[in-house]
Amino acid sequence: MEKIYETNVTDLGAQFEEFLSGKMIILFMDNAPDELQEYCVLHGKNQLNQDIKVGDMLKISDMEYEITAVGDVVNENLANLGHITLKFDGDTTAELAGSLHMEAKEMPSIDIGDIIEIFRK
Question: Of 43, 59, 83, 101, which is the active-site residue?
Answer without folding.
Answer: 43
